[in-house]
Amino acid sequence: MNIPTHDAAATVVAPALAEAELALGTVSLNALRGPAVRRLLALRAEHQLTRAHVHTTAQCLAVSDRTVWRWLAEATVAPETAERPGARDSDRFEITPQIRVLLAYWRGNASAVHRELLARADLAIAA
């Protein structure tokens, strides 16, 4: 996320989250997400939530405003997500180093990689 800063000569784009990341570190910022989202949800319940609250939270957590709004939407639909906003599901597909090699071998053809993985699985089951 970049915030434009106005200079007398030209507009310069400066990184907005460098200070937060340097001061706290990624682990600490991730740990603060839950309490921040719960506080924003409380403000929303009191009809006092403003864009300024979301913007300040986003800056403090080194994420975009849109990300905080998305966390709030997810926590509204599924309140349990307010505990760990932005956390990935454990059943989410991830590209392993082995799959990365196959993608390179098949020149980025995901369908060919999928076919090869299916064929390997069939061989493993048959053996």
Automatic annotation (TrEMBL):
Entry superkingdom: Bacteria
Protein name: Transposase
